[in-house]
Design brief:
With about 70 residues, the protein is α+β, with helices and mostly antiparallel strands. The chain has helices at about 5-15, 50-60, and strands at about 20-25, 30, 45. The chain has two helices and three strands. α1 runs antiparallel to α2.
Length: about 70
């Protein structure tokens, strides 16, 4: 079994392929391009510019998680 990806590894994966992701304008989460609503805050407004996705991924990957996600609630 492989260990889960670190935040930094996930950020690098997203930054390498920003066209597959977008940023939720409600909570600044990064979601896949095919998402209709944000799984965290249920917003439906997104910024899909590659520059913004890379910037947000690198910022989030460089710090500890401080938001609550749906997986934290179980």
């Amino acid at each position: 079994m492989n260990p889960p990806e670190s935040r930094k590894e996930k950020a690098q994966k997203i930054a390498a392929n920003p066209s597959a992701y977008k940023i939720c304008e409600g909570c600044d989460s990064i979601v896949t391009l095919v998402s209709v609503t944000c799984p965290n805050c249920h917003s439906f407004r997104f910024d899909s510019s590659s520059e913004r996705v890379v910037e947000q991924a690198l910022m989030l990957g460089s710090r500890e998680q401080n938001s609550v996600t749906s997986t934290d609630l179980f």
